[in-house]
From TrEMBL:
Protein name: DNA polymerase IV
Superkingdom classification of source: Bacteria
TM regions (residue ranges): none
Matches recorded under CDD domains: PolY_Pol_IV_kappa (cd03586)
Binding site for Mg(2+): 27, 121
Organism this protein belongs to: Bifidobacterium animalis subsp. lactis (Bifidobacterium lactis)
Active site: 122
Record domain UmuC: where: 23-203
Name of encoding gene: dinB
Length: 438
């Protein structure tokens, strides 16, 4: 659900010269809410909010609901106050993902395989290679919108431009259910109509910093030199990006096959959590889930991050580099608890005791990154593992060996084998059929 600012003056005819405008940005309109309305036609024309429960946040809202001031990431309780007669529905990720997959593979890929999927409901498309058959980017966009509406009963908006930046800003301003072509010679003029937050990726902190330098719009940004922007932002890279963006320039090309960057899991407590035992249990569940996904995907992680969200919706994160890449919850969990205690300013020796947290928590979770393929990952045995092997009078592992097999018999290997056994049980009997003990 996009909350980017839209300018009514931008939603006009900018001309019909499509030369060089081969990048499309396609964005579903209120995707989750629209899908719920598509399978519940009786909801059409009514305020539909996806996200329900005292602790939930809004994942999507229909355009009727947005008139009440409801937007994504808003606490569902607040949305209830703003729109007590709204239709509140639980999030159905499986359904949304299934429809998204079908749209991408039965509609979008009929045009081209040069697609960068940004999220479940958004992508960039390079149609330069498809013009021989389709002749016109606008014709492609019209066909895509018609097919999505006809086959799935929802709408999408499309921006057409010469680069990703302008195409995305065009689709945002075409919403809902619109299409906007920005010819190459109008890129700068179009972008300079926008407020600062109209530039994708420009957040409130950077906006505040630019405001302090008297820069309040993209047009003012465009009048600054790169040197002035370096002073304002404190970063040459940020200054160069902002200068280019303010002139409608974007050197970024499509990323067609982006490798997975992180795998995470987070959960919201039914009530604010005040004790370490409850927080630790939830963290353990998240570690278990993430490790299971890593193993299913054949990946190992070297970086661990713990995320906490507090009752005021502020959040904090802390990360660490693991000594060895891992795909085991038995390795992730103790490190995650260490990070949790550090974030809370609590001593490490209070682990496992009945103590209160220094600050209540609304949500907790972990994510893993610096991912590598398991079969390509080399593990250097730790000193503890070498000593353990020696005590068991087993063959000494070789330095820089491949990932240990169960025959090596170290404690970490045995624990990981137990987790793999649980994976097999869950695949056969369901996700809740088996759990590892602490």
């Amino acid at each position: 659900m996009s909350t980017a600012p839209r300018i009514e003056a931008a939603k006009r005819d900018w001309g019909h010269d499509e030369t060089g405008c081969t990048i499309l940005h396609i964005d579903m309109d209120a995707f989750f809410a629209s899908l719920e309305i598509a399978r519940h036609p009786e909801f059409r024309g009514k305020p539909v909010i996806v996200g329900t429960g005292n602790r939930a946040v809004v994942s999507a809202a229909s355009y009727e609901a947005r008139k009440y001031g409801i937007n994504s990431a808003m606490p569902a309780a607040r949305a209830h106050q703003l729109c007590p007669n709204g239709i509140f529905l639980p999030v159905d990720h499986h359904y949304y993902s299934a429809v998204s997959h079908e749209i991408f593979h039965t509609v979008f890929r009929e045009v081209t395989d040069r697609i960068e999927q940004v999220s479940v409901d958004e992508c960039y498309m390079d149609v330069s290679g498809a013009l021989l058959a389709w002749h016109s980017p606008t014709r492609i966009a019209q066909w895509l919108r018609a097919q999505v509406a006809e086959r799935f009963g929802i709408t999408c908006s499309v921006g057409i431009a010469g680069n990703k930046l302008v195409a995305k800003m065009a689709s945002t301003n075409a919403k809902p259910n619109g299409m906007l072509l920005i010819p190459l010679d109008k890129h700068a003029q179009f972008v300079q109509l926008m407020p600062l937050r109209g530039i994708p990726g420009l957040g409130p902190a950077q906006e505040k910093r630019l405001n302090a330098w008297g820069i309040n719009s993209v047009s003012q940004l465009a009048r600054c030199s790169v040197e002035e922007l370096i002073q304002a932002t404190g970063s040459k890279a940020a200054a160069t990006h902002l200068w280019e963006a303010s002139h409608g320039i974007d050197p970024c090309t499509l990323t067609l096959h982006a490798p997975e960057k992180s795998i995470g899991q987070e959960r919201t407590f039914d009530t604010d959590c005040n004790d370490l035992a409850t927080a630790s249990t939830l963290i353990k569940q998240c570690c278990d889930k993430v490790a299971s996904i890593l193993r299913a995907k054949g990946l190992m992680a070297r970086t661990l991050t713990v995320k906490l969200r507090f009752p005021d919706l502020a959040y904090s994160t802390k990360q660490m580099q693991l000594e060895q890449p891992t795909d085991a919850a038995s390795t992730l969990y103790p490190h995650a608890i260490d990070l949790l205690l550090r974030m809370m300013g609590m001593p490490a020796d209070c682990r496992g005791t009945e103590v209160k947290l220094t600050r209540p928590i609304r949500l907790a979770g972990i994510s893993t990154s610096t991912l590598t393929k398991r079969e390509e990952t080399v593990i250097q045995p730790t000193l503890d593992e070498l000593l353990e092997e020696n005590e068991r009078v087993a063959p000494m592992p070789q330095a820089s060996s491949s990932i240990p097999s169960p025959a090596n018999g170290t404690r970490s290997t045995r624990l990981r084998c137990a987790e793999e056994a649980v994976d097999q049980i869950r695949r056969k009997f369901g996700q809740d059929s088996a759990h590892l003990g602490a």
